[in-house]
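User: My collaborator sent over this chain with a note saying "see what the structure looks like." That's all I know about it. Can you take a look?
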Amino acid sequence: MDRRPLLCLGISAALGAGWLAGRVKNRRGLLIERGLMRADHSPKSVELAARAASTLAYPHVYIPLSGVLASTLKRRGVTEGNAVISSAFAAWLAYRSLKAVVHRRRPSARGTEGDDNRSYPSGHATAATAIAFTTAYLCLRRNVARPGPVIATAVAAPALIGASRVVLARHWPTDVVGGWLTGTAVAAGTIFNATSRPEIE
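Assistant: Without extra context I'll predict from the sequence alone. Here is the result:
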């Protein structure tokens, strides 16, 4: 399988995340983001749903989940299944590193003492994207699941988790976009490395 498109996607996503990091470094939300956050008065039911979605992308949840996904893939014959675990840890390292450099304040400092300047990128969006992308790619590459549900889940999960962080006023929208880009770059790099060995027929 030609992996050059995967490599190009990863590089493009990394460049996009880096460019966006430069735009928001040491800055609060852009003018349009501040207006959006002030106008957002989500119903209680939406906020509860956002909290539920957000819970899935904390490290103590997504790292064990990546192990379950990896095990499931390997049972179905996907020998590169451990790439899902690698992607989860690489995502954690990537967003922690970026947060330490960008120093962007969150839209709300509520409950974030000592961590209110680590808004970019959204760690939740980064991890969700990296894990979903890696899992979906391996499923489709090995043809172990129907493309429709796999692609729908791989798109919906990061989208909903990213949106939940904005609804909860924990991130600016550009933090979430940066997380999607960072997660895509992580997944592409992890998959490229995991599939670099020749396949044994």
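A starting point for your reply to your collaborator: DSSP finds eight helices and no strands in the chain.
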